Amino acid sequence: MSIDMEQFKATFIEESLEGLDIMESVLLEMQPGEADAEEVDNIFRAAHSIKGGSATFGFSDISNFTHVVETLLDQIRAGEREVTQEAINLFLSSVDCIRDMLAGAQEGFDINLEQVAEVKAGLDRMLGSALETAVPAGAEPEDQDDTPAVTGWKIIFKPFPDMLRSGNDVVRLFRELAGMGEMEAVVDLEGLPALVDMEPEEACLSWEVTLFGNVGREQIDEVFEWVDGDCELSITPLGGDETSAVDTPAEGVPEAANPAPVQAAPVAQERRSSNDRRQGDRRKSRGSSENSSIRVGIDKVDALINLVGELVITQSMLGQLGEDFSMDKVERLKDGLAELERNTRELQENVMSIRMLPISFAFNRFPRMVHDLCGKLEKKIELKMSGEQTELDKTVMEKIGDPLVHLVRNAVDHGIEIPEVRLKAGKSETGTVHLNAYHQGGNILIEISDDGAGLNRERILAKAVERGLTNSGDNLSDAEIFDFLFQPGFSTADVVSDVSGRGVGMDVVKRNITALGGAIDVESRPGNGSTFTIRLPLTLAILDGQLVRVGEQTFIIPLVSIIESLQVEPSRVNAIAGSAELYKLRDDYLPVIRLYDAFGLKPDSTNLEDGLLVVVEGHGQQAGLLVDDLLAQQQVVIKSLETNFRKVGGISGATILGDGTVALIVDIGGIIELSRNGSKRANSAAA
Q: Which CATH architecture group holds 6-137?
């Protein structure tokens, strides 16, 4: 029978990418000359699974490439080869190539064949060096081994009846054998039942196969390892028995008499940047928009099934009440509706939890990236990561990847000094970059910190003055000065490199984070490093909101942004330059934002004392929003205005309320920024 393998291909590629992640992480921890047996076993098993699966799905280029990697790893595992830095680098390059080939097979785009060929050549050279050391110079082949060469193999293959149900295909096995040499197969029909007794999914045939050619026993074993335990198998060399078999070199070993010296496959420097980006994009696809699947724990699925069962019971109860309703059943109706509300909320929370992924999906790309940058910049850096299990909505995860890449690259390039400079400053020659994630209220905070030289406040200010962003006499805080870093095209780098220094990226970082409803703060300690803190909402789909009324319009303020609400006391209000208003709240002065002015509405009253002040915080700043009334609090589903209408300043989205009306969700950071810009324009006009 024919088995449709396409249904398993996506799962194979996903599992292979996870295997490559394991290989990469182990290789990054591996030190030359210190091959831990368990570590080598882990990466060998990953390579072995990828090779076998690739052959099964017809990805012969991936299978052949990975076969050489597996053979080298097997030699290391057997103690026949030492672990060198060149070997580690070559294996890391191999991981990139396999990842590219898998992504190409999945998405159908062209891969960098030149790079794959270079790495494959390096693998072949390294594999060939084993033969060079095994064969003494000038020795004749007959002087080395008197054992007669194997000219072929006799294989008796008898599948068990259930073998086909495990997904194995005899045709694929024979196709692999036929690719090794000349093959003859004779089928044994003795076990074939009568047609009326035949089961389509049962194997009832057996074969005697003769394979001619200089083929190693291990190559034949690899073909049949997928049916191990599902068949009777006998493999004997032609003209001998199993014990007299002599294995020939593994497939992929070059036959040249003088193989080139072992070295990691070089990748041309002028192509390195584009290749890094290509490989970064492949790594980014794991857990990103290119990956349309999410792995869900069985406990979450069980919880959903239980909740659906409760919903069915509640629906049945309400249905019975509706068939013959009378006023004496009102209390039961209220109880049923309350139960429905509880079940619906729990179902919503459980469904949302399915979209929550550990932030390790975003962090996992950085060990390799920092490793590569250290080699390029000749720096020594230790990457620390904490809070990897902190969960974040998949949608937010997809969009935070690029900003994190920019910030980590800047920390490595601009933040950490070269070893000589660090030693002169009394520091360890190895710098530290720390990625940390944790929850705070309804937000997730991601910190990217380093122990480098810190930001040069005076240099940033001088560059800002030079570009006309501020005046030399302005008294600016550190936060205001560091905010210039996020201006388009702003850079203080003396030398432009392919890592950073063109002033491209930091403005995109802030724009992307702001688009997610988040904010970024900067702290710096001269001589001791910097910390960039990203604050993001846990999810972009649902939020807890406070409904407020301004005139006849209803707005929603995110509950996590609200600090407190209060009645306005006129004596605490101060006006500045006739335009801006400040409200004294304890020891602080907060700008007052009249929402009816911001959105062009007619309020109940323009007097401050007639309204309510909602104190909010956004983008690290506080303000007081003047509203006419506070309504209920409720959880709302966010709908994008930009997708369905157009972008509106100060508004992050909209939702539909229970009565069918549309309420706009206030973008706290955006409304504060709009108010500041409006005040600046008013002051300029007055001046």
A: Up-down Bundle (1.20)
